Amino acid sequence: MATTQTAAAPHPAPTLIGSVQRALRLLEAVGAHADGAPAKQLAREAGLPLPTAYHLLRTLVHEGYLRREHGVFVLGEAARRLAATGARQNRRGLITDSLAYWRDAIGVPVYFAVYREGEIDLVAVAQGPSSPAVEEWADFRETGHAHALGQCLLSQLDEPARRNHLRRHPVEPLTPYTVRDRGALLDRLAATERIRPVVERQEYAVGSVCAAIPITVGSVAATMAISLPVEQQQRLLPAVDQLRSAVGGLLSSFAFSISI
Length: 260
Prior knowledge:
elongated, 8 helices
């Protein structure tokens, strides 16, 4: 018996806002001229009537996406912020790809963080089903005293910068293994050898051990780290040594992160 097939209903056409499309064409036209361009030229390149172009240009100037200088229009701060955001996302993707390579090669989650403007910034993490990262149950920025990433970054700062950080983010016990007070932490950081990995065992999260290696990119303190379940802690130092041997080849990727 033959069956009758019912044709699938076509997807409705998306609703497009003409004024938005025209404004975007103008932004693209302005972006094509490093030194700016006058309204008549922009209208012609965007395929718009001059009165419409004037109206949209005034609106874009008002919103900060364009500036008018000496009779020509150039990109404004709002447009530059959008471009910078896209570039940062691309750089983060490059870093994550690099970390993912070593996650797969070593079989551990890999982290990358920098110390910027007085705060710990976890830039990227590469993890997988067989190598899950430590759950951020307490804000990494506020608990640098307890995890290897933070301890490694703080060890790269000078003494006044360390004390300033710890005034803003006091030492508090997160687990029974966390360093107990600021004095003990400062002594530990001062004794940390510059080229040695920083190892933390269950100080941030019970059941996890971590190791971090210092990276200097320009004047910015940075670090890469790995973590493992405590029952696999015998793998920690061999794995971080393997990662450290590869850092030189990865610095070109990490340089992107400094402006993220």
